[in-house]
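User: I'm preparing a small set of examples for a lab meeting where we compare how different chains pack in three dimensions. I only have the primary sequence for this one, and I'd like the structure in token form so I can line it up with the others. Please keep the answer compact; I'll paste it straight into my notes.
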Amino acid sequence: MSKPIIGIMGNYQSEDAGKPEGGQHINVNNAYMVSVINAGGLPLIMPLTWNDEVTEAAVQAVDGLIVTGGGDINPLEYGEEPTPKQGFSCAIRDHTDFCAIRSASRIHRPILGICRGIQSLNVAFGGTLYQDVSLNGAAALKHHQEAAPNACCHTVHIQTESRLYNLLGSIVQTNSFHHQAICRVASGFRIGATASDGIIEEIEQESDEFVVGIQWHPELMAAYGDKTMQGIFDMFVNACMKK
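Assistant: Understood. Below is the structure token output for the 243-residue chain.
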């Protein structure tokens, strides 16, 4: 049986921001690859480009899309001016993410957004972000850990309606590597999980389509042998087989 092809969004690092096109380096953590391969998928890195025809063709060629972590999304993309806590953003990354997400949605490809990816999903469909979790007003937890990548940082509470509930149960401990978070949830999406301070940790489309965003990094835990977190990728790749 052929393996489903999983497109994985590439990323530029901040040190490449001032370099001319062709001088940057695409950077993707290999944990995404390991998690997809272990789930039975074939991972392929998606290019960053201003050429929407290329992005749309790339999405057509894959069976599912993973929107990876990375820098901050430019707040102008969701109608806000930057605050002092806004970090590095990459215009071509924002542009490619949004084009790929909307293209995948139009042709009913499963989408899994991780960390920045959940934020890209939310903004692509009209939602907004907190430019820093401290601006939530209630956020009290440490959301950017200094422990090992696979170490648990805080507890996440899963709603019974979430696609992840049967896999993770009502409470799960996760890692955490973010300083921005979802503020207003995009229309057509529901909240599937939160941290105890109210920060949104998972959203999903209110439809039968597999369009799920996760704020933590399950790939970093799965790559170290966490079978429960690997189950998220198993679920996603299985959805890609059925597209």
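A couple of notes for your slides: The radius of gyration is 17 Å. The domain at 5-241 is CATH 3.40.50.880 (Rossmann fold).

User: Perfect, thanks.
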